[in-house]
Amino acid sequence: MPVSISGDPNTSPDHSSSIESNGAHHIELITICDIQEKFRNAIWEFPKVVATSQKLVKAAKILNIPVFVTTQNASRLGATVPELTSLIPETTPEAIDKTAFSMLVPALQTHLQSLTSSPSDKLSVLIVGIETHICVTQTTLDLLAAGHKVYVIADGVSSCNAGERPVALHRLAREGAIVTTSESVLFELLGDAKDEKFKAVSGLVKETKEETRQAVETFCRL
């Protein structure tokens, strides 16, 4: 599948990789799980999932972070929604289609392995999509089992039944995932207001302020 989205490769710094104290690279990427047309009328607050995913795709372009997309049985459930595909360059590969619930199918594993240069390199994976308690959960558990860090974006995941979300998110937090919001994770990726990408990311946050407010108020009440 993967759809790799990046900005100008000559632009510095590249937020897709950072170096830890032990010399290992920590590589950031965004995964978009099964946000497909046939789910539009089935998933609770589907438009808010799409809006948060759009924001992260735009941020990925600013920060030079790769994005990977999957679909679940696209012949029956349709393609990725046009609100997202319209943001993806036409020259990028199509999404990986799967029947497994986890995104971590062999085709995606191959692409993820291509991002690392040594066994010590680990991924920091941001995940948005559906359904929280099925595909998002199984993907997260598989990534954690492989030793990667996973950020589940609470304002960017949903299920058909709203009540499934909090149960799944609590479980994933206990399993070791970081359950956070899209705005929080963007500023975590920046790390410093002196970063040259701060102005662009801050502008994106302001541009999507109302959509983010609505998504957080809907999805993130404790």
Automatic annotation (TrEMBL):
Pfam families, A to Z: Isochorismatase (PF00857)
Annotated Gene3D superfamilies: Isochorismatase-like
Q: Which SUPFAM superfamilies match?
A: Isochorismatase-like hydrolases
Chain spans, region Disordered: 1-20
Biased-composition ranges for Polar residues?
Answer: 7-20
Enumerate the spans annotated as Isochorismatase-like domain: 31-183
Family statement: Belongs to the isochorismatase family.
Query: Can you say what this protein is called?
Result: Isochorismatase-like domain-containing protein
Q: Write down the species.
A: Fonsecaea nubica
